[in-house]
Specification:
about 220 residues, 5 helices, mainly alpha, single chain
Length: about 220
C-alpha cells in the first residue's frame, strides 16, 4: 500500500475539467461578443476599418475585467469532485480519500493514506492562469464573431435600403439595438448610438417665458 497523499487523488476527472472549462469559455465568449458589438455601435459609422476594429477589440478586452469574478469556477471540478466529498467523509469519520472508516487512526487501513482532512480550497495562481487562458481564447472568438455579426447586419441593412430606394432607417441587431442605422436617398450610410437622446446645442424652448428665465430660473421667486 502507498502511504501519504497521492497527487492524482486530488485531481478531478479530466472530463469534469473539460466540461467546466467549456462552460466558462462559452459564457466568456458570449459576454465578449456582446461587448464587441456594443463597442462597434458606440464607435458609430457604417462598416469597420482597421482603426475601428482595433478600438472595439481593446474595448472588449477592457470589458473582460467583469469576468474575473469567475476565477473560482476554473477550479470548480476540483471543488465539487475532490474537496466537497473529502469534507463530507471527514465529518462522518471516514478516510477523506477512499471513504473507509478510519476509527481515529492516523493512517487508513484500506488505502494507506493519511486520514487528516484535506486542506480547504484556497485561491491560488492555478485558477487564475486557467481563466486567463480561457479569456484570451474567448476574446479572440468573441471579437471575430462580433465583427462578422455586425457586418452581416450592415449587409442586410444595405439590401433593405436597395429594395426600398428611399431614405431608410432601423435599429441595429441585438445586442446593439440601442444604435440606429440610416441611409439617405443618395445611399450614404450612417450609424448613431441613442439617436433619440441626441441634443441640439442651439435648441431653445418654444415658450417665450421659459426662454426669458434662462439658466438658474428655478432659484428665482415665482
Amino acid at each position: 500500500m502507498e502511504s501519504g497523499t497521492d497527487a492524482d487523488d486530488l485531481r478531478a476527472p479530466q472530463g469534469a475539467n473539460t466540461v467546466a472549462f467549456a462552460a466558462l469559455f462559452a459564457l466568456s465568449s458570449a459576454f465578449l461578443f456582446a461587448a464587441y458589438c456594443m463597442a462597434r455601435a458606440l464607435a458609430g459609422g457604417f462598416g469597420g476599418d482597421a482603426g475601428t476594429i482595433a478600438t472595439c477589440v481593446a474595448s472588449a478586452a477592457a470589458a473582460s475585467i467583469f469576468l474575473w469574478w469567475l476565477v473560482p469556477f476554473a477550479d470548480f471540478a476540483e471543488i465539487f469532485w475532490v474537496h466537497l466529498p473529502a469534507d463530507r467523509r471527514a465529518r462522518e469519520g471516514q478516510c477523506p480519500h477512499c471513504g473507509y472508516p478510519h476509527e481515529s487512526r492516523a493512517t487508513c487501513t484500506e488505502c494507506g493514506r493519511t486520514t487528516e482532512p484535506l486542506a480547504a480550497w484556497t485561491l491560488t495562481a492555478r485558477p487564475v492562469r486557467r481563466l486567463a487562458r480561457i479569456l484570451v481564447a474567448a476574446l479572440f472568438v468573441g471579437c471575430i464573431a462580433g465583427e462578422a455579426w455586425c457586418r452581416l447586419d450592415e449587409s442586410r441593412f444595405a439590401d433593405e435600403h436597395a429594395a426600398v430606394r428611399a431614405p431608410y432607417s432601423r435599429a441595429r441587431a441585438f445586442p446593439a439595438s440601442f444604435a440606429r442605422m440610416s441611409a439617405d436617398e443618395r445611399g450614404v450610410f450612417t450609424s448613431e448610438a441613442w439617436p433619440d437622446f441626441r441634443r441640439e446645442r442651439g435648441w431653445q424652448p418654444a415658450d417665450p417665458a421659459q426662454r426669458k428665465r434662462g439658466w438658474g430660473w428655478r432659484d428665482r421667486a415665482e
